Automatic annotation (TrEMBL):
Its EC number is 1.7.2.2. This is nitrite reductase (cytochrome; ammonia-forming). Belongs to the cytochrome c-552 family. The gene is nrfA1. It comes from Desulfotignum phosphitoxidans DSM 13687. Transmembrane segments: none annotated. The keyword Oxidoreductase applies. It is found in: Cell envelope. It comes from the Bacteria. GO terms for cellular component: outer membrane-bounded periplasmic space.
Amino acid sequence: MLPEKLRELGPACYDCHLQDPLELTFKKDHLEKGLEMIGKKDPSRQELRILACAQCHITYSVPKDKDNQVAGDVTMPWRNGQWGDISIEGIIDVLLTDEFRLEWVQEITGFKMPFIRHPEFELFSRGSVHFKAGVACADCHMPFTRSGSYKISDHDVTSPLKADLRACAQCHTQSKEWLTDQIFHTQDRTTSLILRAGYGTATCARLFETLHQAQAKGAAVDNAVYSKAKDFYMQAFLRIVFINAENSVGFHNAAEAGRVLGDAVAFAGKSESLLRQLLAGVGMDPGLEVALDLGETLNNRGEAKLNFRPEQEFTDPFGIQDKLLSEHAKGL
């Protein structure tokens, strides 16, 4: 029953089903605690068809001590949420007010950072059209199929696009071509906003790097303005990571993805303006365009020494980003 491509990943029948009878369930302790946190009890069968997937497809933190060693079990940043309303604002508030959730150090800025991991459940469940209509993850990614006289969920979990949009046809009467256009309509607009927010945030990171170099040489900056610039940067960065780490390119909740990315663009713009103000105060002018030197950060990455691959680059479907940032400034 379990497709061969999934057998090496770890999920097993036991993770999603009781032994006898094979009814839906979830077994992950961190999800149980997360549901307690948001006051969710006694989920319906259709909600279980979401929560079985949410055992993995959620964001979480791995607590770290001052030496960056694991200091506890994984926890959900859901303290400010409720069922159907786990917002990025609430998640960020939890992540930035608990030092034990800061798991890594960003090399360019030197800032300690939290992780946001694959938040499909959080984005989908925050008022998306499909969630409010009572649709579950399994409806789209595990559509029903016939086996003799039985009607069962297809356990070859995949994108509806890779399954001939069979799942969509269970509810939608339009043609496959129309449905495909609707999916790409959403994802193209999300991609354009991701690029806007991402490059804006990267610009701030480089400006922080320049400012820190000036501080190392003795330059004094206004701490209040610096703190505000950093806060705006963190707000922008965590929003762009939230949407990038979520695997639908906006389709799971187009309206919310657009809102989150729009706010990321705004926060990045505010951070940049304050950073330019601080740099001017120490006699530095970063110029109209900030050199991002992406070749420096995208090549020779990690232990595997990965390099930038042009064929994998997401380009703006509407050509807007090319008007805002030159190839020279990108530095690829």
